[in-house]
Structure formats: structure tokens, C-alpha cells
Design goal:
The chain contains 7 helices and 12 strands. The chain is α/β, with parallel strands linked by helices. It is globular and about 45 Å long. The two termini are about 25 Å apart.
Length: about 230
């Protein structure tokens, strides 16, 4: 399950803005580089889906920056679903659908959604287990149209190594609260993408030692050859 009650305080910091909206400082810090990258890689129009939209800060900025995409946010935590709705209402945006309740670590969720042209996932994989990660990526691939684009962003190991002191401390704090979670390795992720019918077009180094994987859904023929 995506939502965990026992996480270190640094894993998910969000404060109230005095209404239903929540404000996460980390989301504010990373929004600009993420949006700049998405503007380069996302389709010009179509259906866009965000897994684990958090407070809603990202998706309202994306809706403004890419107005020809129709955005669907999702979350598993009720308080954050309310926050997303409040952000949408406050910004009076017409190209965002109401947030969807979704546990993206459950098998089969892609069957309940129309396929998307673009899928976004930010800062989640280090908070779930490897088994849950495998399910999520498999379902993400199924939810993406052939030739569709996905972006996965977050902190990752590089070739099995934690490459900054901050990453080492954060990874340890995660595994101490739950030994099944923590940073995933970039090479393991690329193997998982390939096995799920996704080609990694680019691996982008992002601020604060994060990585962004730009993925493309392979053709049906290529997927069948890999089965």
C-alpha cells in the first residue's frame, strides 16, 4: 500500500495553508526543474495522469504550463485528495479533472482507467517496497498508450551506491522505519522498465541529486517479443 503511517518526518513534510490546501516545501523547490523537463518531453495535447499527486502543488502548475493537456491527479490519502481539490478550486483551472483515489501499488488498477498519453510519478518509489514498485511500474505501462511518454522522478542509488551524505542519511532513516522501503537502484529500475515494455529514452540528473527517467511505451510487437 502506498500510504504508510510510519515514515521519518523528513519523508513527507506538508503544512496547512489555513484551508484544505497543504503546502510541501520540497514540492515547491523541485517544481520548476520538473516542469521545465516535462515541457520538453510531454506531448503537446492529450490525456495526462499523475500517480501520487501529493499536495496538488505540482499538478496545478503543470496545468497552467501545459494547458492543452487534460490532467488527472490521483492520491491514496484522503487529506491529500482534499488538498488537491482545494488547489484546483483556488486556481480555477478547467483542464484538471477531480482527483482520483488510487493505490498504485495494487494489482489491476490500470484496468479502471483510460490509457494516458503522459504519466508522471514524483518522489514515491523510495517510500514503497520493491514488490510494490514492480506492480506499480507494470500497471503504469498498461495505463500508458503505445508510444506514450512517462516521467519518473526521485532519489535513486547509482549503480548500487548512495552518492551523497544526505542520501545516505535519508535512506538509512527510511530503512530503519521499514526495512522493505528505501532508495531503489537506477540499473535495477532500467531493467524493470525494459521488462515492463518501457524504453528509457533518457536518464536526467536533476537538482538535489535526484534522477528523472524519461520513458516511452514500446510498440505491441516489441512487447510481445519480450514476453
Amino acid at each position: 500500500m502506498v500510504y504508510r503511517t510510519k515514515l521519518p518526518e523528513t519523508a513527507s513534510v506538508a503544512n496547512s495553508k489555513g484551508d484544505a490546501r497543504l503546502f510541501a516545501p520540497s514540492a515547491e523547490r523541485n517544481s520548476t526543474p520538473i516542469i521545465n523537463l516535462i515541457k520538453k518531453i510531454a506531448p503537446k495535447s492529450g490525456e495526462a495522469f499523475e500517480i501520487a499527486s501529493g499536495t496538488g502543488q505540482h499538478i496545478v502548475k503543470l496545468a497552467v504550463s501545459l494547458p492543452n493537456l487534460s490532467w488527472l491527479p490521483s492520491e491514496v490519502e484522503e487529506e491529500r485528495i482534499k488538498s488537491i481539490s482545494a488547489w484546483i478550486k483556488a486556481d480555477n483551472l478547467s483542464n484538471i479533472k477531480p482527483p482520483l483515489y488510487l493505490d498504485a501499488t495494487e494489482t489491476g488498477w490500470s484496468k479502471s482507467l483510460p490509457q494516458s498519453d503522459f504519466i508522471l510519478l514524483v518522489n514515491l518509489l523510495h517510500l514503497i517496497s520493491w514488490n510494490e514498485t514492480e506492480i506499480l511500474i507494470s500497471e503504469l505501462s498498461k495505463a500508458l498508450k503505445t508510444q506514450g511518454i512517462a516521467l519518473i522522478y526521485g532519489p535513486f542509488m547509482r549503480n548500487g551506491e548512495l552518492t551523497s551524505e544526505g542520501d545516505r542519511k535519508f535512506h538509512v532513516s527510511l530503512t530503519q522505519t521499514d526495512p522493505d522501503i528505501g532508495y531503489k537502484d537506477d540499473l535495477d529500475m532500467q531493467t524493470l522498465f525494459s521488462n515492463s515494455g518501457l524504453s528509457c529514452l533518457e536518464k536526467v540528473e536533476m537538482p538535489a541529486n535526484n534522477l528523472a527517467f524519461v520513458l516511452k511505451k514500446d510498440s505491441l510487437t516489441k512487447q510481445l517479443k519480450g514476453d
